[in-house]
Amino acid sequence: MCFRLMVKPFYKNGDSVRSNKFSPMQVAEDSPLPRLLTLMSRLKHFISRFLHAGYLNWVFIIPGAILLALFALPLFALFVRSINKDFFSNAFSEQAFKALRLSLITSTVTTAGTVILGTPLAYMLARWRFRFRSWIELFIDLPIVLPPSVAGLALLIAFGRRGLFGSALNILGISLPFTTAAVVLAQTFVAAPLYVRSARIGFTEIDQQLEEAAQVEGANQWQLFYEVMFPLAGRALFSGAILTWTRALGEFGATILFAGNLEGVTQTMPMAIYLGFESNLGVALTLSVLLILVSVLLLALTRRLEKHEQD
Questions:
Q1: How far apart are CA 102 and CA 113, in angstroms?
Q2: pLDDT 10s digits, 242-253
Q3: Among 86, 113, 161, 189, whose CB has the most other CB atoms within 10 angstroms?
Q4: C-alpha distance across the termini of the chain, in Å
């Protein structure tokens, strides 16, 4: 038998001198770590250049432009589609005229009733201190966030012919559902909180010293309200009334559940648009454009009042 002697060289400290297949330089080049460090360095340089070269504005411009396009493009498409040779014929059609007239009447009655009933309530919530005030404010603001269908169902369960209070109203000979009064009631339910909220803020911002000075001069509660508070909060009240009128003009969900969709009786512009979408698309498009124009004018007036108040 033959044995081959394997000689393994050693350093003086005992380490083996085994030859490596790859040199340390080659190992370093093939490792992913240097590549990762290089990539991170380039990314850091790009971000630094992006932040210091004026490109940071696009971080705000691009998301804002996307959301603005989401608002503007549907309205633009609606105008493009509706403006045609039949626009004025649809605008002056009998169905559109009845819906427009009913919407203007009911929204105006709603706004007037809200101003009469909501101004004293807003004044009490702003200037008086009493128990359960926060709970009252909660119930007043609740219709703002409620789905319109929930509001309409609540009105129907409360004041319908078989509702909780409907039997008592029937004894008095009052029937609210599917009448013009039901339209006004539905609009008031969803739109009045906007006025109360705006009026309450207007009364709250009045300086307490003015109230104390009026009381020192001997003004009673009515004189304080009518001669001091009401004029100073006039712009907030007017702004709230405009918002209420606009919201009542566009009310749909609560009205269709509580008042129905009877032409000339309960068919306001939003419901005529809903009906026209199935039967006469031209009328629906025309009424939509009219509602947009009215809303833009009223909102522009509100913004002008707010800007004038800030100046």
A1: 16
A2: 999 999 999 999
A3: 189
A4: 111
Please give the pLDDT value at position 6: 47
Query: How many other β-carbons are positioned within 10 Å of the β-carbon of residue 201?
Result: 15
| Matching residue, tokens 């008042």 | 259
Structure tokens at 277: 């979408």
Tokens of 208: 């307490």
Number of other residues whose CB lies within 10 A of the CB of residue 220: 10
Is the torsion defined by CA of 190, 275, 269, 176 positive or negative? negative
Indicate the helix (H) or strand (E) that contains 148: helix 148-159
Q: Which structure tokens are listed for 128?
A: 């008086």
Backbone angles phi, psi at 10, to 5 degrees: -130, 150
How far is Cα of residue 170 from the mean position of the Cα atoms in its chain?
38
pTM: predicted TM-score of the whole model, two decimal places: 0.76
The token pair that represents 99 in the structure block? 């819906």
User: What length does the chain have?
Assistant: 311
